[in-house]
Amino acid sequence: MADHWCCHRRTILSTLLVCLTLFGSLLVKWPSLMKPFLTAELNEFMVPYDSTNTNSTNTLIPDDSTNTHSSTNTTILVWHWAFGSKQDIHGNVCQDRFGIPNCFLSDDRSLFPQADFVIFHNRELINGQQLPLHLPRPEEQGWVWFSWESPAHNGNIKFLDGKMNYTMSYRRDADFFVPYGWLEPHNVGSGMTVDDFIPKNKSYLACWVVSNYAGHHKRTQVYNKLKKVIPVEVYGGAMGRRLNGEQLLPTISRCYFYLSFENSQFQDYVTEKLWSNALKGGAVPVVLGPSRKNYEAMIPKDSFIHVDDFWSVEELGAFLKKLAEDRERYASYFKWKLNYRVSAYDNWLVDPLCRICTIRSTLQKPKVYRNLYDWERK
Ligand SMILES: *[C@@H]1O[C@H](CO)[C@@H](O)[C@H](O)[C@H]1NC(C)=O
Ligand SMILES: *[C@@H]1O[C@H](CO)[C@@H](O)[C@H](O)[C@H]1NC(C)=O
Ligand SMILES: *[C@@H]1O[C@H](CO)[C@@H](O)[C@H](O)[C@H]1NC(C)=O
User: Fold this and answer.
1) 53 lines ligand 1 (CB under 6 A)
2) Could you tell me the fold of the domain covering 182-343?
């Protein structure tokens, strides 16, 4: 596992205690531990789907101008659930949650011959889950490759070449673009000022929540340098300071800056660390991920600090210290809050599927990914 619980304890006694406690909780929490650790960062804060929340004003992504509500039925078959996490999709999920008609989700494999789209989540494929190559494949059926992870964690997917028709991912050029979050226009009403959006209980300069800690990650190297220059509060499983879903935002709101450091650097790979942690929590994000230009396509350029803005980590640290003391300048990073608010999927595994129906009519057809591996690394 990513968290080396037992190895870093200094004394044998505390090692023993920690391991015994862990062993105990392992027995109790076995099902939840079955969730793979690579995406533990994502899953830790995943909100379970609530079928009683019928809210048709939710949006599926920022600018869904391509939205068309088809009058033909679309059947979407989930071949296996991501991370083995079976979701409750009984009823008419896409209609109830997003007002999308004629869009049916199922995980009943006997519907394969009728399915318009079949969803294959990557993690299970690289762990040995088989594609239904033994079944006659309807010519019109679209196979959709679905992944939330960056190429660094998707494994060698060469065996998928020529098999998948569409992609569903955080990549903006995926057939089904499903971002980790987005800003949506929001009118806060007159009389509000930027100051109203800055939490008043700031007591830490910089904070970081990390559940997958690895020395070879670029982010770990930056953190190790940064903590020598400024104090950094660290939380998360990897640090033995796990935060639950309710503690996360109140904790982040007490930090001037939040280190939204991605585990790997790839085009468009900007995760909940930016959206659901920093921006929602009311801390200014310090980002490490794709280029500044790439971030600027998603959020205003004056709403974040990029590690690459500085020649050195020392210089970054000095800048953060000065900025936290400069009330007015610090506040300017919150200007976007007057016009936007942060949004993200309630259910990362179900909500993205509904998007298929809204843009179905605009899909290129037929389409095949002859080299998915290279597409990922583009
Ligand atoms: C529906 O969604 C809107 C916008 O996200 C939210 O303000 C509202 O509280 C939601 N209503 C319910 C019943 O959840
Ligand atoms: C800090 O203040 C914000 C609102 O400004 C609040 O949401 C959050 O819960 C507070 N955090 C703590 C730890 O009290
Ligand atoms: C999907 O890919 C298969 C296999 O390459 C191909 O035969 C089929 O025409 C494609 N279907 C669509 C809808 O693009």
Assistant:
1) yes
2) Rossmann fold (3.40.50)
